[in-house]
């Protein structure tokens, strides 16, 4: 089977799993099994326990000079891509009309952050094998640092000293730094502890998507298809930003597996954290839910399309 056909199959499978898990959360909320107080506690568990374990586990890999070189390359590319996306989102999605609608910050978040963890990692592993796992872990770690610094500040709207300190001391940021040191100095956790951290980290996908589904319960699903702002978000996240990344990667003469992995992860649909952060900050979740749903469905076409230009 060719890589392209296998890749499309993985995308379809991951999207199906995503909607099953979101559907479970939707049903649990509709049945009043997951009420708001319960969801609030589970969101705290997800953001401050489960996700730090996922981030740390990404760095539990053997060290070698070649791996370090590739680590720095992918890390630098991921850092540059996120900075580029942040600047572009500020320039393109900061208009008066968006601010009046109260969704400017949410649109900027959906444009910058992709679902590189859940959809992206399994996809690139199936696409290029072990290199996909390594490159993907580095990209996701960098993404996590940005999510828990710029992403949090984007939703909270604060950049004062107290808020900055709180963001920098966020468990996800701290754990990413510690994980990087563990990789550089070849420090491995004891087997039992490593397995425990891994099991907790694996809860991330199911728990996050169930909570996203629960957040969809009060929203009228039929209205999603008629949201012009959500479709604009899909165009920016799924097509415009990845196209810019592709041009930059080709200009830098990035080739092979690294090109495919970095492009694929930057071209994934809207991240589920767009809904989670809106819940955490008390904002309306209708727009991020609409953008997430439409972007995920559209990725069935847009993700293979973007990768075809890199083949």
TrEMBL record:
Cited InterPro entries: Mem_transp_PIN-like (IPR004776), Na+/solute_symporter_sf (IPR038770)
Keyword set includes Membrane: yes
Cellular localisation: Cell membrane
Pfam families: Mem_trans
Keywords from the UniProt entry: Cell membrane, Membrane, Transmembrane, Transmembrane helix, Transport
Protein family (similarity comment): Belongs to the auxin efflux carrier (TC 2.A.69) family.
Name of the featured protein: AEC family transporter
Organism the protein comes from: Shewanella avicenniae
């Amino acid at each position: 089977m060719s890589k392209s056909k296998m890749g499309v199959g993985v995308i379809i499978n991951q999207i199906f799993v995503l909607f099953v898990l979101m559907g479970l959360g939707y049903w649990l909320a509709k049945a009043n099994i997951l009420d708001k107080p319960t969801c609030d506690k589970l969101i705290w568990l997800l953001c401050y326990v489960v996700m730090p374990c996922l981030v740390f586990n990404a760095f539990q890999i053997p060290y070698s000079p070649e791996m370090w070189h590739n680590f720095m390359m992918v890390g630098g590319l991921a850092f540059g891509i996120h900075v580029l996306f942040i600047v572009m989102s500020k320039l393109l999605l900061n208009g008066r009309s968006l601010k009046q609608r109260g969704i400017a910050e949410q649109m900027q978040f959906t444009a910058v952050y992709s679902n590189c963890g859940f959809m992206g990692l399994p996809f690139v592993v199936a696409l290029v094998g072990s290199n996909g796992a390594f490159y993907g872990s580095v990209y996701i770690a960098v993404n996590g640092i940005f999510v828990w610094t710029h992403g949090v500040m984007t939703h909270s709207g604060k950049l004062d000293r107290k808020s900055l300190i709180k963001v920098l001391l966020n468990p996800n940021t701290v754990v990413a730094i510690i994980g990087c040191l563990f990789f550089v100095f070849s420090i491995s956790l004891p087997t039992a502890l490593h397995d425990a951290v891994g099991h907790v980290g694996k809860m991330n996908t199911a728990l996050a998507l169930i909570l996203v589904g629960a957040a969809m319960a009060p929203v009228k699903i039929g209205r999603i298809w008629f949201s012009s702002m959500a479709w604009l978000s899909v165009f920016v996240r799924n097509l415009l930003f990845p196209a810019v990344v592709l041009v930059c990667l080709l200009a830098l003469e990035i080739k092979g597996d690294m090109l495919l992995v970095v492009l694929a992860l930057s071209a994934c649909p809207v991240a589920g954290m767009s809904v989670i952060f809106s819940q955490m900050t008390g904002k309306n979740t209708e727009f991020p839910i609409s953008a997430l749903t439409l972007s995920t469905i559209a990725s069935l076409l847009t993700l293979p399309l973007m990768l075809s230009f890199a083949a």
